[in-house]
Amino acid sequence: MSTAVANTGTEGKTWDGGNEPLRASYGKMMMWFFILSDALTFTGFLAAYGFSRFKFIDAWPIADEVFTHVPFFHGNYPMIYVAIMTFILIMSSVTMVLAVDAGHHLNKSKVTIYMFLTIIGGIIFVGSQAWEWNTFIKGDFGAVQTKGGNILQFVDTHGNRVAIRDFATKNPHNERVQHERKNGLWFVSEGSLPEYSVEDVVKGLESHKDVLVRTQLINEHGHKTVLTREESLKQIKTNGKLVVHGANLKVNEYGSSLFADFFFFITGFHGFHVISGIVLNIIIFFNVIVGTYERRKSYEMVEKVGLYWHFIDLVWVFVFTFFYLV
Amino acid sequence: MAHEHKLAIFRGLLKFKSNTQKIWGVLIFLSLVTAVEVLLGIFKPESLNAKVFGMKLLNWIFIILTIVKAYYIAWDFMHLRDEKSGLRRAIVWTGIFLMAYIVFILLQEGGYVFNVYDKGYIKRDF
Description:
The complex is a heterodimer. In chain A, strand 3 and strand 4 form a beta hairpin. The longest helix of chain A is centred in the last third of the chain and has 34 residues, at 257-290. Chain A has helices at 26-55, 63-66, 80-104, 108-138, 164-167, 198-207, 229-239, 257-290, 292-296, 300-325, and strands at residues 143-146, 151-155, 212-218, 224-226, 240-244. Chain A is an alpha+beta fold. Chain B has helices spanning 19-43, 57-77, 85-119, and strands at residues 8-9, 14-15, 51-52, 55-56. Chain B is mainly alpha-helical. The N and C termini of chain B lie far apart (61 Å). Chain B is elongated, with a radius of gyration of 20 Å. At the A-B interface, helix 1, helix 3 and helix 10 of A face helix 1, helix 2 and helix 3 of B.
């Protein structure tokens, strides 16, 4: 058909690249093969996430308790923010496919508008992702990590989460300060110290009779196990090792640190795809404006970059399911 | 190919007049499916906690709805519906075969490791 992209001088030369097997041009077919291999990469990541989750199936964090924030609103709103993000990405997929459709009608002004909207949608999505990461890294309530690497969180007698800063009693005589290169060994560095020590938490727990410890273990009702008052004190005193606040690649106040590792890695890899997709979209956008495809009488480049953009949406659908829903 | 679009979805149940109309129709469908997923995710009805083939019914619903969404993104947004069936099969079945394979192996192994932790002599509750 007449959709072959550039005139490369191979038209009609069957054995010199002019043939179009499966009636798809070379570029389009290669884009599909790239997408297939990239899909397998993401499958590998998500399957590895599934492996780790099955390994700790009775102690995995519950997503509804991890991602509960919405910008500008206080309170507990699980799922809402990520649903908005998903909708933004689907919307930008729609404007992309509208751009492709306008390209088929060689309608330059419409392609320009739709490509522009697609780029804006992509930028909003990446921005939202950054906010989500920021909230996740900062953390909320804080928790105590045990010697075995498990996480102990705190709840009141109604099961509502209690933040460590609300009950821990700070020891005024704690003189431990963060080691810095300028006042200590220049070749040793130390990360910022936790705001509270385990002793502070123990003291606070002893004086606040209504605070209980919640372990990682999921009971038969699908909730995390809450310990009794005596067990709570015993757990913290015998096993408590480190107060953690927020999440990074080493510790994670929400539960298994593997959860944070995979969250950063998979959504990060997806975000990297979105960013490169935005860059490709911008390049094609300027090509549309200067009229490259108008002169070529074919907007197939828009279609190819569109395939990549939809693929990003496709991956997000799966990331959304396996990180936030299941 | 490119200029001829198949305009029917749901196995011909719903026919659109133009490609643009079909795009908006698919958007509405995808948004509805996402809304259902989000509502189920927020309320988590107790009745869907029953186990079916070793997994919660709710999780089965989520995964099936995800595959439904993936189907309509690939078929209508990525125009797989309009490609030759040879190209479509080469892409889809290659992927599905390899994905199902690695997912099965890794989940099976993960379940085994869990059992070792749970019933074996390795402790992690300290």
